[in-house]
């Protein structure tokens, strides 16, 4: 095939993803930037600087930076022992524990927020066990705890995957020469492991800095991150220019963090040697790591158990009353649509978002992994790779805000369209789908495709016989993660969901925002249902043993 024909084929494959990202990503983001810098048709940089020099903006930025830093440090300290115990040691129940510790990362953020409110509130177990001396409800410490709970799985999976592949022989040689376990770790293991730790920490910091549901649910109006401030400026104060200015600042910071994280992942460690040595049985020296893993599992299970117990306790007795009430509107007509109907809407939206993300992500993965035979092809694929990863650099709140202010006039007046929410959720899940599929497709030997073609197989037949047997498990895993992300997505959906068609996360947030014991109990019950649905999907994906989180 000639070079021009190959470039035309590449353009044809990339056409649909390019069109979708152009209309539903580039246009909203550029419109958002324009709203921040252009006033009455004129460039007004001073207005942006005025927003950034406000005292409240300074407090929001400082809270975002320090809370993300503290949460990142704690997640790394808690995740390292668990990464070792779950990926270097072999013991009964290891896979079950590893799957259980993965669940918090894919739980809807609003569910995590509700769980920690129940755990830390005045009627929660923390206050009861400490006799009221420790009250973390609505505090910065409670927010940091929620961020750690949500992100510790990133450290476990990212560092654990690297730790699992380290060659154990250098450490064993150092131990044979008289080095203590601490010395072996400091002088041998840590230099090989450091790139993975730093990379995972940078990704955790990114996720903490762009957290939305957790900070909004636990912080309210007292504590606000950049992400929640954009939401409040838009929905509460109608200050769209200030929201746009903060969105631009966040976009620049997040893209810079992604570049740093990408460079850290790309730097090869000259001392890193891969090993196929299977995990070994624990020794006496491994007891501290196993104990730390057990403690982490208990800490992760506690908020979830508190959430479940709270949803089943009504006036001091066990009851399903809160679950039965999900078919109604709550106290004082808190809901326009029953939570049961919102769950159906969430499931339908998640199905649509999943197939959209798989279609776009599959095309992108094929485009990025086909062998480049000319310099022009390599350059085109390099540019496309960076372009298709751009959604990872924009938070869901910023994306939803961009949709809100740009897709509101003909010929793109889509704010009332039922396809808008699943499209936004598909864009949020798209980077994960691509990160899951690209390493697998890149590992397929292109000579197998050439052999199939030489035997008369067409392009589709070649894909079915060569690529599909390799990619079907990662494809199912990508579908499961995309479904789970869509089911719990709250940032973009909070801007875009119509009042008569809310998703379940939006309904949960509305319930906790309205006073009344019944409303709060319904929020707990709805959170349990949403968390259970998400956990079942993720545990099914975990059985496929595809390390999707490691791609981040």
TrEMBL record:
<feature type="transmembrane region" description="Helical">
    <location>
        <begin position="290"/>
        <end position="312"/>
    </location>
</feature>
<dbReference type="GO" id="GO:0005886">
    <property type="term" value="C:plasma membrane"/>
</dbReference>
<comment type="similarity">
    <text>Belongs to the binding-protein-dependent transport system permease family.</text>
</comment>
<feature type="transmembrane region" description="Helical">
    <location>
        <begin position="518"/>
        <end position="541"/>
    </location>
</feature>
<keyword id="KW-1133">Transmembrane helix</keyword>
<keyword id="KW-0813">Transport</keyword>
<feature type="transmembrane region" description="Helical">
    <location>
        <begin position="419"/>
        <end position="442"/>
    </location>
</feature>
<feature type="domain" description="ABC transmembrane type-1">
    <location>
        <begin position="343"/>
        <end position="541"/>
    </location>
</feature>
<feature type="transmembrane region" description="Helical">
    <location>
        <begin position="353"/>
        <end position="370"/>
    </location>
</feature>
<dbReference type="Pfam" id="PF00528">
    <property type="entry name" value="BPD_transp_1"/>
</dbReference>
<feature type="transmembrane region" description="Helical">
    <location>
        <begin position="96"/>
        <end position="120"/>
    </location>
</feature>
<feature type="transmembrane region" description="Helical">
    <location>
        <begin position="240"/>
        <end position="261"/>
    </location>
</feature>
<feature type="transmembrane region" description="Helical">
    <location>
        <begin position="382"/>
        <end position="407"/>
    </location>
</feature>
<keyword id="KW-0997">Cell inner membrane</keyword>
<feature type="transmembrane region" description="Helical">
    <location>
        <begin position="140"/>
        <end position="159"/>
    </location>
</feature>
<dbReference type="GO" id="GO:0055085">
    <property type="term" value="P:transmembrane transport"/>
</dbReference>
<feature type="transmembrane region" description="Helical">
    <location>
        <begin position="475"/>
        <end position="498"/>
    </location>
</feature>
<feature type="transmembrane region" description="Helical">
    <location>
        <begin position="60"/>
        <end position="84"/>
    </location>
</feature>
<keyword id="KW-0472">Membrane</keyword>
<feature type="domain" description="ABC transmembrane type-1">
    <location>
        <begin position="61"/>
        <end position="261"/>
    </location>
</feature>
<keyword id="KW-0812">Transmembrane</keyword>
<dbReference type="InterPro" id="IPR000515">
    <property type="entry name" value="MetI-like"/>
</dbReference>
<feature type="transmembrane region" description="Helical">
    <location>
        <begin position="7"/>
        <end position="27"/>
    </location>
</feature>
<protein>
    <submittedName>
        <fullName>Putative 2-aminoethylphosphonate transport system permease protein PhnU</fullName>
    </submittedName>
</protein>
<dbReference type="InterPro" id="IPR035906">
    <property type="entry name" value="MetI-like_sf"/>
</dbReference>
<keyword id="KW-1003">Cell membrane</keyword>
<feature type="transmembrane region" description="Helical">
    <location>
        <begin position="196"/>
        <end position="220"/>
    </location>
</feature>
């Amino acid at each position: 095939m000639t070079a021009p024909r190959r470039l035309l084929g590449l353009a044809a494959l990339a056409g649909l993803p390019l069109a979708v990202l152009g209309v539903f990503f580039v246009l909203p983001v550029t419109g958002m930037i324009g709203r921040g810098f252009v006033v009455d048709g004129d460039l007004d940089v001073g207005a942006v600087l005025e927003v950034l020099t406000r005292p409240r903006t300074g407090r929001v930025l400082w809270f975002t930076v320090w809370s993300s830093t503290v949460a990142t440090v704690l997640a790394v300290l808690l995740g390292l022992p668990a990464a070792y115990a779950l990926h270097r040691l072999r013991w009964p129940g290891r896979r079950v524990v590893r799957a259980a510790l993965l669940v918090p990362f894919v739980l809807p953020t609003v569910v995590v927020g509700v769980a920690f409110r129940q755990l830390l509130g005045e009627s929660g177990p923390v206050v009861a066990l400490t006799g009221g001396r420790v009250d973390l409800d609505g505090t910065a410490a409670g927010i940091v705890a929620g961020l750690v709970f949500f992100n510790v799985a990133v450290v476990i999976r990212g560092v654990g995957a690297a730790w699992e592949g380290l060659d154990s022989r250098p450490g064993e040689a150092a131990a044979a020469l008289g080095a203590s376990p601490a010395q072996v770790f400091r002088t041998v293991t840590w230099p090989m492991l450091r790139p993975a730790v730093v990379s995972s920490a940078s990704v955790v910091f990114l996720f903490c800095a762009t957290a939305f549901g957790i900070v909004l649910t636990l912080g309210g109006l007292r504590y606000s991150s950049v992400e929640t401030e954009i939401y409040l400026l838009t929905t509460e104060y109608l200050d769209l220019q200030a929201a746009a200015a903060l969105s631009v600042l966040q976009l620049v910071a997040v893209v810079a963090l992604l570049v740093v994280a990408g460079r850290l992942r790309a730097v090869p460690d000259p001392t890193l040697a891969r090993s196929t040595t299977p995990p070994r049985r624990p020794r006496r020296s491994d007891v501290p790591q196993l104990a730390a893993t057990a403690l982490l599992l208990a800490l992760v299970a506690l908020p979830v158990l508190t959430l479940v117990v709270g949803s089943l306790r009504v006036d001091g007795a066990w009851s399903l009353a809160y679950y039965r009430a999900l078919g109604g509107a709550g106290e004082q007509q808190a809901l326009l649509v029953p939570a049961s109907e919102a769950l159906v809407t969430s499931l339908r939206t998640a199905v649509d978002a999943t197939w959209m993300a798989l279609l776009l992500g599959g095309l992108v993965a094929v485009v990025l992994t086909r062998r480049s035979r000319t310099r022009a092809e390599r350059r085109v694929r390099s540019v496309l790779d960076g372009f298709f990863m751009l959604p990872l650099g924009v938070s869901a709140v910023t994306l939803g805000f961009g949709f809100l202010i740009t897709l509101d006039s003909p010929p793109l007046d889509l704010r009332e369209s039922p396809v808008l929410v699943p499209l936004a959720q598909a864009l949020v899940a798209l980077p994960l789908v691509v990160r899951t599929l690209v390493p697998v497709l890149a590992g397929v030997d292109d000579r197998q495709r050439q052999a199939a073609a030489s035997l008369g197989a067409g392009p589709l037949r070649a894909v079915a016989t060569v690529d599909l047997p390799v990619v079907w498990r990662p494809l199912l895993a990508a579908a499961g993660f995309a479904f789970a992300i869509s089911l719990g997505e709250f940032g973009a959906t909070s801007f875009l969901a119509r009042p008569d068609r809310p998703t379940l996360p939006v309904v949960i947030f509305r319930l906790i925002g309205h006073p009344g014991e019944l409303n709060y109990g319904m929020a707990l019950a709805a959170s349990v249902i949403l968390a259970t649905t998400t956990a079942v999907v993720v545990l099914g994906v975990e059985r496929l043993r595809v390390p999707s989180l490691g791609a981040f």
